[in-house]
Request: fold
Amino acid sequence: MDFMLATGIECSAPMIAAGRRDQLVLTNHVERFAEDFDLVVDFGIRYLRYGVPFHLVARDPDHLDWDWTDAVFEAMQERGIEPIADLLHFGVPDDLSGFGDPRLQGRYVAFASAFAERYPWVRWYTPVNEPYITAHFSAGLGWWNERQVSDAAFVRALVNVARCAVV
Reply:
């Protein structure tokens, strides 16, 4: 491949003040994904960086809920859109305290493995979106998720997201 023109759907999902999160909901993409994908096709874009909502799919620690994600990836496949699956985009399931939570790596590995098995036709991945920013904004500056401000919290978060990126 000599050149790839790609775009993405905004899918950030960090927990911020007042318990708010999720750009997929705020932009109505959750309900209008088919229309959004039609626009991607109309623009002639074949590759789409797409955040799989880890915080929703893995909201239950004992069960992965693929219902919405199945519909989304089927709609992409029908339109000939090649996803670049973004598996960890600033948010974690609500039962995890944040990126420094020691349970993160196990939950993420189960989620990422199940995703790859479920969608074997997906060829491109972003395992962890912006690992440094993820850790820094969550546990260094305290803006997201665990909202901690300390060197120790930042290092815990950074180590966890790095482990998620390389598993």
